[in-house]
């Protein structure tokens, strides 16, 4: 069985409010073939999200010019728990409507200054008129509808966890936007970045599982597709650090190599679909709003 992809790119994102490199910053891993058709790995550690977006665009442009299809993984949710669009009273309640909402509300400047806490505050106001479901603001960013402490979530809002978080043990809720290991802030600033990359590439850029279907992918499914963007969870694969590597750098390399090995063995295609006995109603949630973690 032929590979689905020719290159593997993993982005370990960050919601830092200031430029930062090293541990706990943005790392981009790239596994691609060299002039001898041998796979080689390189990593990048841009100090800001703007630099990271520029770097990713350059990487994707180069691979596309070479005629190589890329698996592009991001370590933050690409969708929100089912019912979020409805709770926000969006005309388009799907993932696409939520992406458009974030793209029009999130301000993320070249120096990493961003308004993610203000956006979470606004979303709480629209969904509940209370300081929930988002929570976890630093004390200096506490606002009327966003507090530092965890609230009672309630049953009148979208669930705490997506189906994917239930499956990927140990992953945190998107509603927590501050603290170690949280992904909420990364999603708020990350989704608009992916949206811009997608807009620049049109039909050649597909977001899994929303635009590909939640199913085993075939070569025919990806005809004319240059990039498939997917959500990944670095902790699913134990990193294998090399001397001098920081944890994040090791994780993006290990994930690139992990997906390349699965692809070589003909096992990656099935990872894009649900497991055996996956509930039909959950498939609808995953493809319409929530998304999924590749390999969960």
Radius of gyration: 18 Å
Average pLDDT for all residues: 95
Report the total helices.
9
- How many DSSP-defined strands? 6
* Spatial strand arrangement across the major sheet: 3-2-1-4-6-5
Proportion of residues in β-strands: 5-15%
Helix content range of the residues, please? Answer: 25-40%
Secondary-structure element order, N to C: EEEHEHHHHHEEHHH
Q: Which residue ranges are poorly predicted, with pLDDT under 50 across at least 5 consecutive positions?
A: none
Overall shape: it is globular
How many structural domains does the protein architecture include? 2
Structural class: alpha/beta
Largest β-sheet summary: 6 strands, mixed
Terminal Cα span = 22 Å
Description:
This protein has two domains: 169 residues, no CATH class; 84 residues, no CATH class. With 296 residues, it is of the alpha/beta class. Helices cover 34% and strands 11% of the residues.
Q: In short, what is this structure?
A:
By secondary structure, the chain is α/β, with parallel strands linked by helices. Helices cover 34% and strands 11% of the residues. It contains nine helices and six strands.
Chain-wise SSE layout:
Blueprint: E1 7-12, E2 27-33, E3 39-44, H1 49-65, E4 70-74, H2 84-87, H3 95-105, H4 116-127, H5 163-167, H6 184-201, E5 205-207, E6 227-231, H7 247-264, H8 268-271, H9 280-290
Helix pairs in contact: 3-6
What attributes characterize this protein structure?
34% helix, 6 strands, 2 domains, 9 helices, single chain
């Amino acid at each position: 069985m032929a590979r689905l992809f020719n290159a593997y790119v993993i982005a370990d994102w960050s919601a830092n409010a200031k430029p930062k490199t090293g541990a706990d910053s943005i790392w981009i891993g790239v596994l691609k073939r060299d002039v001898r058709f041998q796979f080689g790995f390189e990593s990048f550690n841009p100090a800001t999200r703007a630099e990271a977006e520029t770097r990713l665009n350059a990487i994707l442009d180069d691979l596309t010019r070479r005629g190589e299809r890329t698996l592009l993984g991001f370590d933050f949710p690409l969708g929100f728990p089912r019912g979020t669009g409805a709770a926000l009273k969006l005309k388009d309640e799907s993932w696409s409507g939520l992406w458009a909402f974030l793209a029009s509300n999130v301000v993320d400047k070249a120096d990493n200054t961003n308004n993610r806490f203000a956006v979470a505050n606004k979303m709480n106001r629209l969904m509940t008129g209370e300081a929930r479901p988002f929570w976890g603001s630093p004390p200096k960013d506490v606002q009327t509808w966003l507090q530092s402490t965890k609230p009672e979530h309630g049953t009148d809002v979208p669930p705490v966890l997506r189906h994917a978080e239930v499956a990927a043990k140990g992953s945190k809720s998107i509603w927590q936007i501050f603290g170690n290991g949280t992904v909420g802030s990364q999603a708020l600033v990350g989704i608009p970045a992916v949206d811009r990359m997608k807009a620049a590439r049109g039909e050649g850029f597909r977001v899994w599982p929303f635009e590909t279907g939640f199913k085993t992918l075939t070569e025919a499914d990806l005809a004319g597709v240059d990039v498939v963007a997917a959500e990944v969870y670095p902790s699913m694969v134990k990193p294998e650090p090399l001397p001098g590597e920081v944890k994040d750098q090791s994780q993006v390399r290990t994930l690139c190599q992990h997906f390349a090995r699965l692809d070589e063995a003909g096992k990656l295609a099935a990872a894009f679909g649900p497991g055996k006995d996956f509930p039909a109603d959950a498939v609808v949630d995953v493809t319409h709003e929530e998304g999924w973690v590749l390999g969960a």
